[in-house]
């Protein structure tokens, strides 16, 4: 029997197409384009450009190029979170930092590609390494998170 993650695309607890309560295209309350409290361009408290303590580019303790304990190439410590496509193929890894509001995203080759900042509503906003807002992550009903681009398209999920 395939694991539940292998069936994620057909699992209503994970796939937002089958569950409107976790679909930002249907549920405006969880869509940062319609909810200013979770939109970093409208809420400076969750925008790393204004709140530098959330920006690993300006906070060395959160930056894997400065803090080798956060770099999966340099340490065996790993938070146990995986980034997967909707088809359950490995996209990369997630590393927790000393600040629970900041997660680091790595690709399959363990290159740091992005970071996520807590939106204070059980989700995260995803930024590239230039600090540009690229998407968001929302809790799903399987105990993980779904990752979306700014248009609200489901691009993957994060699971342990």
What are its keywords?
mainly beta, 160 residues, single chain
How would you sum up this structure, described in words?
This protein is an all-beta fold. The chain has one domain. The protein has no helices and eight strands. It has an eight-stranded antiparallel beta barrel with strand order 1-2-3-4-5-6-7-8. Strand 2 and strand 3 form a beta hairpin. It starts with 80 loop residues before the first strand and ends with a strand. 34% of the residues are buried.
Catalogue the unreliable spans. none
Overall shape: it is: globular
Number of helices: 0
Oligomerization: single chain
N to C succession of SSEs: EEEEEEEE
Cα separation of the termini: 19 Å
Roughly how much helix do the residues carry, as a percent range? under 10%
What is the arithmetic mean of pLDDT?
A: 93
Give a count of the beta strands, DSSP E runs of length 2 or more: 8
How much strand content do the residues show?
A: 25-35%
Major pleated sheet: 8 strands, antiparallel, barrel
- Summed up, the domain count is 1
Question: Taking strands numbered 1, 2, ... along the chain, how are they ordered across the largest sheet?
Answer: 1-2-3-4-5-6-7-8
Secondary structural class: mainly beta
Radius of gyration: 15 Å
């Amino acid at each position: 029997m395939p694991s539940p993650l292998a069936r994620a695309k057909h699992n209503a607890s994970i796939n937002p197409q089958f569950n409107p309560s976790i679909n930002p295209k249907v549920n405006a309350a969880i869509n940062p384009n319609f909810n200013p409290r979770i939109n970093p361009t409208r809420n400076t408290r969750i925008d790393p450009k204004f709140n530098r303590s959330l920006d690993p580019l300006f906070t060395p303790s959160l930056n894997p190029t400065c803090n080798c304990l956060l770099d999966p190439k340099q340490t065996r410590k790993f938070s146990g979170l995986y980034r997967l496509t909707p088809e359950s193929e490995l996209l990369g890894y997630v590393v927790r930092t000393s600040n629970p509001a900041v997660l680091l995203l790595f690709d399959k080759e363990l290159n740091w590609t992005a970071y996520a900042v807590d939106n204070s509503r059980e989700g995260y906003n995803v930024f590239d390494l230039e600090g540009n807002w690229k998407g968001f992550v929302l809790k799903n009903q399987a105990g993980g998170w779904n990752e979306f681009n700014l248009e609200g398209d489901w691009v993957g999920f994060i699971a342990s």
